[in-house]
Design a protein that fits this description.
This protein is mainly alpha-helical and 220 residues long. It is 72% helix and 4% strand. Helix 4 packs antiparallel against helix 7.
Length: 220
């Protein structure tokens, strides 16, 4: 595990280290958090570890159970809640983005699809994850509503955790989501707000159904 440096507040460094461990899957969903072990491995006292853990709880990457703190297990109920929030916020943001998006952003979206296909073929799922995040971030960044963007970003850590699971852990295939990405790009290029919102809603709903199936297959 990475060690801390003196130039930055220790609890923020510990937070970044643990967050990356969670999002990379090194700390798996459901895994119990051992405060003493973390402080020993990183080389800091338990105080900055406790503060980092508090922030991770606010992000909902860690949750409290009767047996202690664990990495969010992403059970079916939790997944449903996360995806419902995404549907409500990102679909509406996509509709708003249709009025604001320009050629530069459309080119970024098209590149993300091309890169995703290439990374899938190379089985580079960590890069698939990054390209997928670029696609969605580029769209909602064009919504023109700073309050909505803050709300979406508030859930970004949890969303990233679901994407890590669906891509890096379950090795999700490139279809149908990349074809759906292309359809969304086309609607955005036509500045069709109603269609953009409809397509994004259908896209995220489909992601949720596939994620549930992957989760169920793992537990069979």
């Amino acid at each position: 595990m990475r060690k801390v440096e003196k130039k930055t507040a220790y609890h923020l460094q510990v937070y970044d280290i643990l967050k990356q461990q969670i999002l990379s899957g090194d700390l798996a969903p459901g895994e119990k958090i051992n405060e003493y072990k973390i402080s020993h491995e990183i080389g800091v006292s338990r105080s900055p570890v406790r503060e980092a853990i508090r922030i991770l709880e606010q992000d909902e990457l860690l949750v409290s159970t009767v047996s202690g703190l664990i990495v969010n297990p992403l059970d079916p109920v939790t997944l449903k809640n996360i995806y419902q929030c995404r549907i409500a916020m990102e679909s509406y943001a996509a509709g708003l983005a249709a009025a604001n998006i320009g050629e530069k952003q459309l080119a970024v979206l098209e590149k993300s699809v091309e890169e995703s296909r290439a990374y899938h073929k190379a089985c580079q799922y960590d890069q698939v994850l990054k390209a997928n995040s670029v696609f969605h971030t580029t769209i909602y960044a064009q919504c023109g509503n700073s309050s909505l963007m803050k709300m979406i970003e508030k859930y970004s850590a949890l969303v990233d955790l679901t994407k890590t699971q669906i891509f890096s852990t379950y090795k999700r295939g490139e279809e149908p989501y990349l074809t759906e990405h292309e359809e969304i790009i086309k609607a955005l290029s036509q500045h069709d707000a109603e269609l953009c919102e409809k397509l994004m809603r259908r896209h995220i709903e489909g992601d949720f159904e596939i994620h549930l199936k992957l989760l169920e297959n793992e537990t069979i």
